[in-house]
Write a structure and sequence with these properties.
Number of domains: 2
Bound molecules: manganese (II) ion
Oligomer: single chain
CATH class of the largest domain: Alpha Beta
Structural class: alpha+beta
Number of helices: 13
CATH topology of the largest domain: Aminopeptidase
Strand order of the largest sheet: 1-2-3-14-4-15-21-17-19
Shape: globular
Low-confidence stretches: none
Number of strands: 23
Radius of gyration: 24 Å
Largest sheet: 9 strands, mixed
Strand content: 15-25%
CATH architecture of the largest domain: 3-Layer(aba) Sandwich
Helix content: 25-40%
């Protein structure tokens, strides 16, 4: 090759090499404002939708306000919703093209790691009252000790009466907590052990009171005080807690991090960052080319098992329903799904500057560099994942470019370092094109996850582009 001039080399480099782009370098003042405004709406969603049930209620409420009608009703319109057991919900918008050409699916999840109450939760020990828990999803147990917790959920009485719980969010509410051992006495019980052994699931008990009822002769009087309180305020008895789903989650609202207010921290951003982006994107979409589905699944954090998870038949049911409404045979469901394109809308771990050793820097998602897509996830040797086809990745690149989405390609950690799954492989079973694409997070799966407002906004832009793409 001939010697090149400096300008020529620069031109060559600009033309030939790929560089990830920081969102803040790419956007104008108006977009910066839009990013901040989006962050404010997003934080409200985080605070209102800390559990899957609350998320479904909020999503259904917002959809109804925008003219979405129950897909199962007699007079559905072009915009519909399908509320599945109050824990999973689908929003659908009719496209111009026939369903047989496929639908466009953005599928997120609305469950997050937490502490669930056991069926016989209430007990007393050492003159203190506690709730027993079983943790839900992938938590680092020590992160749940010595911090304020709120209790959200439902209790169903045998007569069908439903009692809603949300305690610990209003400033005047009491909160709850899991105790931790003082460092002075923790040497053998915690400090000398491996982290995986130092904190036991059976010790994640929630302190709920210390007032006795009656006199010292009264049996289990601290527990009795709490039971009397629950009867007086909620009309429930101990047996009612058996048919309940009560979830202890970090108390308090989502917050801005840093003086520059460029970051959001809060509980449940896996996967509310993508859920909210999917929600705003679908609510903003009108007369799309292809029918659009925004799906908000439950039970992703525990492997998508159960009748409200991505493994259940909800998608098939919704597609059959849409086919029937349009006078087409539900038998063509398989063809619809095989011709479909999907985004598995889920978060990824961003490059953590304190732990560079677990990431492979070239291929790690970075905070502030936009929405991140993963060609594949899983672990060692590409097991347990759906590896998106190059043709589909190329198409995603094209629509993101067309709609001005700032994006990056990421990968969760070094090869053989660990790994993680999403719902992509459960939707891929239907033969559709699918790719993981979502917000990079720091402190992922912790009670206080961190996201860049720029990435949150680009996640929304990405799903909007996907729903509105013509080709
Ligand atoms: Mn997730
Ligand atoms: Mn997760």
């Amino acid at each position: 090759m001939e010697a090149q001039g400096k300008d020529e080399l620069k031109e060559l480099r600009d033309r030939l090499t790929v560089t990830q782009k920081l969102v803040w370098d790419q956007v104008d003042a108006a977009t910066r404002e839009a990013i901040q405004a989006y962050g404010e709406r997003y934080k409200v969603f985080l605070d209102q939708a800390k559990t899957e049930r609350e998320a479904v209620a909020v999503i259904e409420g917002l959809a109804k306000a925008r003219g979405f009608v129950d897909l199962q009703s007699k007079t559905p319109g072009d915009k519909g919703y399908y509320n599945h057991k109050g824990k999973t919900i689908v929003l659908a918008i009719k496209g111009r093209r026939p369903l047989s050409e496929g639908v466009r699916i953005v599928a997120a999840h609305i469950d997050s790691p937490r502490l669930d109450l056991k069926q016989y939760p209430l007990y007393e020990d050492t003159d203190l009252a506690f709730f027993k828990t079983h943790y839900y999803g992938g938590i680092k147990k020590y992160q749940w000790l010595a911090r304020p917790l709120a209790l959200h959920g439902v209790v169903l009485k045998a007569d069908g009466v439903r009692v809603e719980f949300k305690v610990g969010e209003d400033p005047g509410d009491p909160v709850f907590t899991v105790l931790d051992l003082l460092p002075h006495l923790a040497r053998k019980a915690q400090m000398d052990k491996k982290v995986t052994e130092a904190f036991e699931g059976e010790k994640l008990n929630i302190l709920v009171g210390s007032l006795p009822l009656g006199d010292p002769e009264t049996k289990e009087r601290f527990k009795l005080y709490l039971l009397k309180y629950l009867e007086d305020h909620y009309g429930i008895r101990e047996e009612d807690l058996i048919s309940a789903e009560l979830e202890a989650v970090p108390a308090g609202p989502a917050r801005d991090i840093g003086w520059d207010r460029s970051l959001v921290a809060g509980y449940g951003q896996d996967d509310r960052s993508c859920s909210y982006a999917a929600l705003e994107a679908v609510l903003d979409t009108t007369e799309p080319e292809y029918t659009c589905l925004a799906m908000f699944y439950d039970k992703e954090e525990t492997g998508s098992d159960g009748n409200t998870s991505a493994k259940c038949c909800l998608l098939e049911e919704v597609v059959e329903l849409l086919l029937e409404r349009q006078g087409e045979s539900p038998q063509t469901r398989r063809r619809v799904l095989m011709n479909s394109r999907a985004i598995s809308a889920d978060v990824t771990g961003a490059l953590d500057p304190d732990y560079p050793e677990v990431h492979e820097k070239r291929n790690a998602a970075r905070l502030g560099y936009g929405v991140a897509f993963h060609k594949y996830g899983g672990s060692g040797g590409k097991y347990y994942t759906s590896d998106a086809n190059a043709e589909y990745v190329a198409w995603i690149r094209r629509i993101f470019q067309e709609f001005g989405v700032v994006w990056q390609a990421g990968q969760l950690g070094k090869v053989d370092e660990g790994g993680g799954g999403t719902i992509a492989k459960y939707l891929a079973i239907h033969g559709m094109e699918i790719i993981d694409c979502g917000t990079p997070l720091l402190s992922m799966h912790s009670p206080f996850e961190v996201a860049s407002k720029a990435d949150l906004y680009m996640t929304f832009k990405a799903y909007q582009a996907f729903f509105n793409a013509r080709g």
